[in-house]
């Protein structure tokens, strides 16, 4: 079965404070290797890919949104018309958990009808730096319908879980699975500022 290149891609935005690992997470979607060289995203970067699912193909535009090098008005225009979002937080930086609510509100302001949202840790952190933040610290999660939490920092082998959750929500099919190996079938990037 060939990817349906005519299918309009889902727009999934990845937001969070600077340095939480958004770009690293996007890179992990395309390669098993980590690039340890940190380059801060300026503006946004779009990565396009297709994945083979047990229920067919899915086309995705992953928007990696800058956590610091942008204004709220810029971000609102970039977040608008999103189909889903991932808010990244860092287990070694408690402020990123506090700011997750601000990111959530920005997402809803740009998408008032609501979208599926995942809040996730990502960056592997040495045990002596982990803040032991209980997911309940994100108290507002309990007051929302479309938000799921994943702690990937302690087990990055589950890196596909946030994307799988979002794709299941967008496809409205909880049985959807990725065909493995979980590898990219189409790659192109667009950088904008």
UniProtKB/TrEMBL annotation:
Any one GO MF annotation of this record: GTPase activity
Matches recorded under PROSITE patterns: RAB (PS51419)
GO cellular component: cytoplasm; nucleus
Entries under InterPro entries matching the protein: P-loop_NTPase (IPR027417), Ran_GTPase (IPR002041)
UniProt cross-references to SMART domains, sorted A to Z: RAB, RAN
Keyword terms, alphabetized: GTP-binding, Nucleotide-binding
Listed Pfam families: Roc
Keyword Cytoplasm annotated: no
Classification via Gene3D superfamilies: P-loop containing nucleotide triphosphate hydrolases
Name by which UniProt lists this protein: GTP-binding protein
């Amino acid at each position: 079965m060939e990817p349906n290149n005519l299918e309009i891609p889902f727009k999934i935005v990845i937001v969070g404070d600077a340095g939480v690992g958004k770009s690293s997470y996007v890179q992990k979607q395309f390669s098993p290797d980590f690039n340890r060289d940190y380059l801060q995203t300026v503006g946004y970067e779009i990565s396009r890919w297709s994945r083979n699912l047990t229920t067919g193909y899915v086309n995705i535009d992953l928007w990696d949104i800058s956590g610091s090098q942008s204004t709220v008005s810029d971000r609102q225009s970039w977040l608008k018309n999103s189909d889903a979002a991932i808010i990244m937080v860092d287990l070694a930086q408690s402020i990123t958990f506090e700011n997750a609510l601000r990111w959530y509100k920005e997402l809803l302001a740009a998408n008032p009808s609501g979208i599926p949202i995942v809040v996730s840790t990502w960056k592997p952190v040495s045990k002596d730096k982990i803040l032991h933040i209980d997911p309940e610290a994100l108290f507002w999660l309990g007051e929302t319908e479309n938000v799921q939490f994943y702690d990937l920092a302690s087990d990055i082998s589950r890196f596909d879980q946030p994307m799988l959750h979002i794709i299941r929500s967008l496809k409205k099919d909880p049985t959807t699975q990725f065909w493995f190996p979980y590898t990219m079938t189409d790659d192109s990037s667009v950088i904008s500022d």
